Amino acid sequence: MNLSQRYDRSVEHLIAQTAERTVAAILHAWSEERDAHIVITGGRNGSAVSKSLDLELFRGTAEFRDAKSGKTPRALHIWFSDERFVEFENSDRTDTTLIENIKLTRNLITFHRVSPPSRGSLNEAAENYSKQLKENLGDQRFEVVILSLGEDGHVASCFPDIPDSLESGSPAIAVWDSPKPPSERVSLSLKQLAQSHQIYVMAFGESKREAIVRSINEASTSPVGLLRGSSPHGNIFVLTDLN
Predict the structure, then answer these.
(1) Which of 28, 29, 55, 134 is the most buried (most CB within 10 A)?
(2) What is the layout of strands, in order, in the sheet containing 185-188?
(3) Residue 30: inside a domain, yes or no?
(4) Number of domains in the chain
C-alpha cells in the first residue's frame, strides 16, 4: 500500500475531509450496485467521525429521498475496528456511542457488533466476528478503514508488543492482554484491515509525534508498517495536526 502523511492544523477539518471522502467511496460502491463496507474506530476520534459521517451521508443521499428519482440506496455495513469484551450496556463499550451518534441515516446501515461475554467466550466472540466478515464481505475489500494511532503506535487493538495481534491471519482476533484496560478485546486483524481501498489513520496531538515517526520509519515492525505490507493495493493516509 502507498503511505502518505496529510497535515492540517485543524482536526475538525481533517475529520470533515475524511467523512466526505468516505461518503464518496460509499456512493461509488452503490453506483456499482453493491453494498458498501467501512470500518470505524472508537474513542473520541471515532465519535467525531461518526457524527460527521452521518451528516455527510445524509447530504449525499438526498436524491434517494426524492420520490421522483426512483432510486433506492444499497446497504452500508459498518464494522468496528475493535471492541472491549464487555456487555452491550457496559460504559466501557465503544460501539454503543458510535451507533447513537448516527441518527439521520441509521435506516441505511447495518452495524456489525462484537458479541458480549453473556453470549460466549472471548475466542467465540472473535470467531463469530470472523464468520460475519466472511459471510458479508467475502472477497470484497472495505471501501474505507478509519483508525486511530495510539501513543505506543497501536491501531485497533493490534499492539506493538503482542506478536499474536500483529501476525494473525484470521479476520478477527481475540486479544487477552491489552496494555490498556479492559484487557480482553476483539479486534480486526492487520491482515483484514489492510483489505481496503483507503485507510485513514488519525494521529492528533503532541503525544502522537513519536508514534507517527515510528509508524512511518519502522516500516517492517510497526503496526502501521505491517498494515502497509499486508496488501499491495490501496492507500494509507496518516492524518495529523502536527507540523
Answers:
(1) 29
(2) 82-84, 185-188, 172-175
(3) yes
(4) 1
> Cα–Cα distance between 201 and 238 in angstroms, integer?
5
**Does residue 153 fall inside a structural domain?**
yes
Range of the domain at 90: 2-63+73-240
Helix (H, G, I), strand (E, B), or coil: what is residue 49?
A: helix
223 domain residue, yes or no: yes
Range 93-120 average pLDDT? 97
Q: Residue 29: is it exposed, middle or buried by C-beta count within 10 angstroms (0-12/13-18/19+)?
A: buried
Give per-residue pLDDT as tens, 33-46: 999 999 999 999 99
User: What pLDDT score does 68 carry?
Assistant: 74
Q: pTM for this structure?
A: 0.96
The C-alpha cell at 183 is 484487557
- Burial of residue 33 (number of CB atoms within 10 Å: 0-12, 13-18, 19+): exposed
Distances (CA, A) of 5 to 85, 203, 215: 32, 10, 11
68 belongs to a structural domain: no
> Among 79-83, 113-117, 196-200, 217-221, where is mean pLDDT lowest?
217-221
Cell numbers 488519525 correspond to what residue?
A: 202
Distance CA 14, CA 243 (A): 14
Q: What is the CATH number of the domain that holds 134?
A: 3.40.50.1360
- Helix spans in 137-197 (H): 163-167, 190-193
